[in-house]
Amino acid sequence: MQPALLWKRQDDNAVLCQLCSHFCHIEPDERGKCGVRVNKDGDLFTLVADRVAAANLDPIEKKPLYHFYPGTTSFSVGTMGCNLACSFCQNYSLSFPPKQGQEVRGERFAPEQIVEAAKRYGAHSIAYTYSEPTIFFELVLPTAKLAHERGLKNVLVSNGFMSPQCLDELGPHIDAANIDLKGFTDDFYQQYCGAKLTPVKNNLKRIAKSDWWLEVTTLVIPGANDNPAELTRLAEFIAGNLGLEVPWHISRFHPTYKLMDRDSTPTKTLEMAYDIGKKAGLYYVYVGNVPGHPGNNTYCPGCNAVAIRREGFQVVKADLSKCSECGRPVHGVAMNALEDRYAG
Ligand code: SF4
């Protein structure tokens, strides 16, 4: 247990946590909604500042980030707990136990060890991911600072429900983010995630204006957020407020955790969402979790030629810096970093 950041003491030894947009009021000996921040005698502590519950070397495409140093690897770390309560959580064995008062599992890792491991594995970046990185902010911040000093990039894979204060603090230390936009109604966020839509939209707008490279992911769930009108509003929000060049990843739902009462998303629903994204004017829309689907490739926004062909998370052919057919640049960061590897 280590001292937490971003909180204020209230009357009667209660505390106000300011790390995420729940702004939990936490009484002594209670935990916040995330299950990993606890009030002890009027001070707030975190249970996860030195715990890593999952670590892997992943292709950056798996985050997914398709337009940020494509073809590189990212040392991906996560801990336990989450500030949201999604009934369709794909990492529920990590995210939910602390919320139920259970022990936080994981190995003790200091920022120095995470950065060293990333360097040892030849990773280009460190990804803060798996459960929600907001809630292990006290580990993310010093690790990200050290990673930059050692020449590594930092990547956040987040639900976007952090507080404005948290986003301020993370700002200079993160290089790219994939942020979930899980639906586009307050009802959906409330009913399926125990959260609110507005803070996510506000954070997305701020991130789009920042120096971070931004990509957005929506898991399309049958009967929950697959209404064409809702998807249209969501795609138009990205196009109008974040930018036409912001990639939108449409991902297939599979029954999991508490949402076992429906089938996986039909491919035709994902293709309908793809068409909605393109009609909204988005340059880069992707169909995810459907092996071999042509919607996993990058198409030139100018002439629609295949600019980057992928098999799963592997780049197999790329005109990374510009389309070989019409010469139009493909948006992104260091798209030509590995051009030699994929030439031809
Ligand atoms: S991080 Fe969010 S969910 Fe956790 S205690 Fe703070 S305000 Fe509550």
From TrEMBL:
UniProt keyword Protein biosynthesis, yes or no: no
Cofactor: [4Fe-4S] cluster
Highest rank taxon of the organism: Bacteria
Chain's gene name: amrS
The protein's name: AmmeMemoRadiSam system radical SAM enzyme
Organism, as annotated: Oceanidesulfovibrio marinus
SUPFAM superfamilies found in the cross-reference section: Radical SAM enzymes (SSF102114)
CDD domains reported for this sequence: Radical_SAM
One MF annotation (Gene Ontology) recorded for this entry: catalytic activity
The keyword Metal-binding is annotated on this UniProt entry: yes
Pfam families: Radical_SAM
High-level lineage: Bacteria, Pseudomonadati, Thermodesulfobacteriota, Desulfovibrionia, Desulfovibrionales
